[in-house]
Amino acid sequence: MSQQSMTDISKAVSQAIEAVKNLDGSQFVTQFSDNGVLIDEAKHYRTPGAILEWFLKGLKGHEATIQVLGSGVFQEEVWIQVMMDGDYAADYGITEPFPLYFHFFLSDEDRIKLLRVNQIRPEEPTMRAVWAANGNDGDPLSALRSDVMKVPEVPEGWVRVKVVAAGLNYHDIFTLRGMGMFELKFPLILGNEGAGTLHDGTEVIIFPVMGNPDYKGDGTLDPERHVLGELTQGSLAEYVVVPERNVVKKPKNMSFETASVLGIAWLTAYRMLFTRSGLAKGQKMLVQGSTGGVATALIQLGVAAGMKVWATGRTAEKRAIAEKLGALRTFLPGEALLPSEALPPCEALPPGEALPPGEALPEKVAAVFDMSGEKTFKHSMECLETGGTLVCCGLHSGGVFAELDLMKLFTQGINVHGTYAGNREEFEALIAFVADHGLEPYIPMILPLEKAEEGLRMMLEGRVQGKIVVKM
């Protein structure tokens, strides 16, 4: 890393720093190219007006002063190290001068196309990442940040995975809301599953369930159980570190896209179907939902295992996707009728009940898989044959309480199971099953890391079908 005079490096950089010294916002903004971007605390300012607002609030509004400590060129960037001072006590609790780096990336015309402001030294290894800066239940996406951060160090017994692809999950939305089984420590990189390579080139899939390494028994019942991205940094980054026991070798005939989505939704679906339901080949199963990550996985796994798969979906489009994936019959969720029931036609329903009744189920089923919770739980119970099994894994419809027919529960020998994710043995079995059957998870959208927000927004708005993959 070489140190050089600012004026020898770039006129735009020299004038930008001079503008900071003079608290001249107009002079500062004019050094940027037409599409120039400023990133501070991982917030992106993409227009001249936004950059000027940052300057006026962050610098001039706090009567900032800087002392230039050094400058130079490192790879593609021009860096300026400063010591900044100002009236930051009230807003940030900062009472002493603090070091800061300005990382300038210039166009061929010597205009600023990107300026990063942070405390990372130019020579420190960095990686691109997407993270939650805090939890905001009312506006989850306002907590989202995307920028570079330091490459994580590797603790003893852990490995660093260079992430190739990662799957998005609704768990990421919970993190942005600040919700979780544990107290979340921000900033927290999102991403609960993924696949990539080790330092020696070995291609691996991340097993996302972590916990006490000394726990004996089913790891999903470990009181210290957590998943990647809860108590550790997640996989929506170029690198992630995990315990060595949490990587599994990727089959050569499996794509990184497929591998990247097996850790949460597909593992949960595998455990629901093969461990908890007790289903045998040829039996009927109902999946409450058609296009969510767990729902599509259940449909594909059930079909591959020889089950007779039925599914529900709120729209004709969603039901068509379920049928495309192999479902034999599809119905409206929650409103589907059993043969013994009768509802008035749609036009006779009371005001507010806009959904029409669905098709009558031809017969009851051996198992129902419910990811919605409150709004479908009663219907799920009604669809079960004597001795049938209901397996639950989600609360996508909202509430945490559901109506339960206790008479049916014990007189008809109904089994109800709750589950989430799976253990390592199930994960390895899932990988082998997917590889042996040539399954390709339903992934209608693949995004670059820079557009992860687009996928998260779709998930928040309930517009996701199948899985969304983010490529690094």
From TrEMBL:
Gene3D superfamilies: 3.10.450.50, Medium-chain alcohol dehydrogenases, catalytic domain, NAD(P)-binding Rossmann-like Domain. The lineage of its organism: Eukaryota, Fungi, Dikarya, Ascomycota, Pezizomycotina. One of its GO terms (molecular function) is oxidoreductase activity. InterPro entries: ADH-like_C, ADH-like_N, ER, GroES-like_sf, NAD(P)-bd_dom_sf, Zinc_ADH-like. PANTHER family: DEHYDROGENASE, PUTATIVE (AFU_ORTHOLOGUE AFUA_2G13270)-RELATED, PTHR45033. Residues 139-470 form the Enoyl reductase (ER) domain. This is Enoyl reductase (ER) domain-containing protein. It comes from the Eukaryota. SMART domains: PKS_ER (SM00829).
